[in-house]
Specification:
This protein has four helices and nine strands; from the N terminus they run E-E-E-E-H-H-E-E-E-E-H-E-H. With 173 residues, the protein is an alpha+beta fold. A three-stranded antiparallel β-sheet has the order 6-5-9. Strands 1-2 form a two-stranded antiparallel sheet. The N terminus is likely disordered.
Length: 173
């Protein structure tokens, strides 16, 4: 008599994977930041632990992701719009440009983004339900790799001081 086929439950974890915030993390030992020894599992656990303060800043805002699926030593790219096969925890909405913009609302979304190779979150200065009412201005300092970090710090400090002259509060993210 043939054995009946058994379908594993949909929540089963593949060999070698880990689960963080209910999200399956494939290749959890992949080095994401090799200079620091930070692995994919570490980054996922960090985002789970820090979800509350992180989401206080970026929840329900259109996002761009800097993705390095093989770690920062590998190739990276920006992604601003939803793609086929995204985890359900990474949400999207119809943006004004007609594309599907990305946003997050929960810790599982942060962890799902890490699973997709996200190493940086870039926020827009609006909430997704109020695109015509910016409430934040973001200065994203992305210097050329040949610029010494001390010069980046000096530029950020000068910008902070200039904004203070106008009574504008600032913070580092």
């Amino acid at each position: 008599m043939p054995r009946p086929s058994v379908t594993p439950p949909s929540d089963s974890v593949p060999d070698g994977a880990a689960v963080v915030a209910g999200v399956t993390i494939s290749h959890p030992d992949r080095l994401i930041f090799p200079d620091c020894g930070i692995r994919k599992r570490d980054l996922a656990r960090y985002h789970e632990a820090m979800a509350e303060p992180i989401l206080a800043e970026l929840a329900d805002r259109p996002l761009a992701f800097l993705r390095h699926p093989e770690g920062v030593a590998g190739e990276g790219f920006f992604q601003r719009h939803a793609a086929t096969g995204w985890p359900a925890q990474i949400r999207s909405f119809a943006a004004q440009d007609g594309d599907r913009a990305l946003y997050l609302t929960e810790a599982a979304g942060l962890v799902a983004a890490v699973q997709m190779g996200v190493v940086e979150f870039h926020i827009e200065g609006v909430h997704r339900d109020r695109p015509d009412r910016p409430d934040r201005l973001v200065f994203d300092l992305d210097p050329d790799t040949t610029v010494p970090f001390a010069e980046v710090i000096a530029a950020a400090t000068a910008l902070r001081d200039l904004l203070a002259e106008f009574g504008m509060p600032t913070g580092v993210m």
